[in-house]
Amino acid sequence: MKDSLAAQGLLPSSPLTKALAYAHKRRAALEVFLTDPDVPIDTNHLERALRPIPMGRKNWMFSWTELGAQHVGVVQSLIATSRLHQVDPYDYLVDVLQRVGQHPAADVAQLTPRLWAQHFGKAPLRSDISRHVA
């Protein structure tokens, strides 16, 4: 890449020069998937998980405050992350919201979707209000 960048003799504003400089600057991060089999070659699965967020953008314009918008972002992130780890977002949120008050602060990482599935996913706490009304 470095040789190609130097050999091109293009202006710095050229799209090819910009692309080569971008790739060269981020080479280590772009090559991670070559050494770690758990890292996918692309981020399509993450982009698909985040797709519902722009779809509801007009609804979230009315979060009323910047703090409200930040909270919407946190909840959307938790929902997307739970789906990424094959955790039902409803079960996850119901369990965590009931558990958070009595859970030790030192072990708060256990309440992230990935670790929650390992520790509590087999028997999540349920709500008195069932989402499956008979």
| Largest sheet: number of strands, sense, barrel closure | none
User: How many DSSP-defined strands?
Assistant: 0
Helix content range: 55-70%
Mean pLDDT: 84
Q: What is the CA-CA span between the terminal residues?
A: 62 Å
How much strand?
A: under 5%
Structural class label: mainly alpha
Question: Low-confidence parts, pLDDT < 50 over ≥5 residues?
Answer: none
Q: Count helical runs.
A: 10
- Any idea how many domains? 3
What order do the helices and strands follow?
A: HHHHHHHHHH
Q: Name the overall outline.
A: elongated
What is Rg? Answer: 22 Å
Structure description:
With 134 residues, the protein is mostly helical. The protein has three domains: 1-41, no CATH class; 42-84, no CATH class; 86-134, no CATH class. It contains ten helices and no strands. The radius of gyration is 22 Å and the shape is elongated.
Key terms:
10 helices; 0% strand; single chain; 134 residues; mainly alpha; 58% helix
Describe this structure in a few short sentences.
With 134 residues, this protein is mostly helical.
